[in-house]
Specification:
The chain is an alpha+beta fold and about 110 residues long. It is built from 4 helices and 3 strands; from the N terminus they run H-E-E-E-H-H-H. It folds into 2 domains: about 5-50, no CATH class; about 65-105, no CATH class. About 40% of the residues lie in helices and about 15% in strands. Strand 2 (about 25-30) and strand 3 (about 30-35) form a beta hairpin.
């Protein structure tokens, strides 16, 4: 490992991520990590509203559009499976978009 960022360790951190009370906890390479609520909000700049998402309160999130989400999730999965690369599958490249278009319109590909 060299450099300032270790993608594999970041992946392990998020894989093991869980909430314990108001704190974010994880476990990486034998080390327990606990990030307290005030530190997490200061670092991320995210407002903590204590909203827990479950089937009972999905209506609370007014801007939630299930179809738009499914389309983005499908695009992510297609780009992840069909166009493998080292990282950043959340940003679709132009080639990914063309590939998805071809799949949707049954264009034969090589």
């Amino acid at each position: 490992m060299s450099g300032n960022i270790y993608p594999n360790l970041v992946r392990v951190f998020y894989t093991n991520l869980q909430f314990v009370g108001d704190n974010v906890c994880s476990h990486v390479k034998g080390v327990d990590i606990e990030i307290f609520h005030d530190v997490w909000t200061a670092i991320t700049g995210l407002k903590y509203t204590r909203l827990r998402i479950n089937k009972g309160n999905i209506g609370v999130v007014e801007e939630f559009n299930k179809m738009r989400f499914y389309k983005r999730l499908t695009a992510f999965i297609i780009s992840w499976m069909l166009t493998p690369r080292g990282n950043n599958h959340s940003t679709l490249s132009e080639e990914d978009l063309v590939l998805i278009y071809c799949i949707m319109h049954k264009v034969k590909l090589n």
